[in-house]
Write a structure and sequence with these properties.
Helix content is 4%, strand content 40%. It has 416 residues and is mainly beta. It starts with a strand and ends in a 9-residue tail after the last strand.
Amino acid sequence: MYAMMIRRLPALALGLVVGAPLVAQQGPRPLPAPDLTFEEPFSSVGVGAIRELSNGRLIVADPRDKILHLVDLDAGTTTAIGREGSGPQEFGMPMRLFIAPGDTTLLFDPLNTRYLIIGPDGKPVSTFRTDAEPSAPRPGAGPVMVGMGLFGRVSDARGRLYGEASPISMGPDGRPQQADSTAIVRYDRGTKRLDTLAYVKLPPSNTQVSGSRDNMRVMVGGANPLAPRDEWTVFPDGRVAIVRAADYHVDWVMPDGAKRSSAPIRYTPVRMTAAEIRHEEELRNAARSQQMSISMTTGPQGTQRSAQMGPPPGAPPLEPLTNWPEVKPPFRSGPASVLARPNGELWVRRTENAQARGTLYDVINAQGAVAFQVRIPDGVTLVGFGNGTIYTTRKDADDLVYLQRHPAPERRVEGN
């Protein structure tokens, strides 16, 4: 363990009036100022890479540097958890963190295609795999279970894992084909049961296939970033919130399996002008630095896996897209765009015009209505929530990121 410097700032809630009605028409609220900034930088910390423990300490995954940290913000210390490798208490790449009962944490490791169990003391305990492990596509194999085995998205307080079943199956010609929707599935590692909870609509052309039948490359997630896509998340109690892109409303799957729909949320679509297209192309290229590509190659030595964060050195800019929609969808796509705060708030990252500064979130209550909005300033990225806390990162000129802790408004959301 070694000490780090921390900088404390007054706990200010700028523009936040606790006694005021929660009405979105009042205008977006600025994010409360950070009360603490951790001075040791990270290379990459995204949504799902932070887990706050009950004592306030954090587990932080940095997939670019392949380091897992136990961070004590108040003491200014960090301790390494485990090490890189394929042993019983090691990881190939620390990708995403999931909550489990009693301050236990599950780390998803895509290179070893398994989960590392981390105890409440921040020490590795053991590993496990789900029953739905990824495999290379094979003719006649039917649907290929990529989503649950390879990329769990979130967990509930019981440690059940939620992800998406793969929409890819093998066609008669031996080439992958994509459905227009996929299932949200829940995996209980105690019972080894896999349940289908609901379905979400996917954008067209979300799968790119190249190469021959015997040497095939399949890329999932290659659709236009503004193509409408349903997004979803899960609350600690097991409630699933599905945000529908077609008319911007929330469908709820309750812990007992009951389903209900909220009324559509009003919004004004942003038309895609030439200026908007230029802006979106800039965002598309900038996002490459935080995107991960995972390759699976099957040969005489079995299945070999490798991962890379960002484009390779010297890679040219992406080819401009020609299939931009006429208007932007109401919210951004991706797992980082729809987040569940433990107090019951659903945070949805909105689309705006190119002149807008910062990032706008709709904060939605249990009735599916916008209670208020929060604007996060430029250069700051929301990465997670804790117990009465919000965590962001701030990027410097060298693209290093600094973890910040903000106090969160404690007013109870209407309807929860």
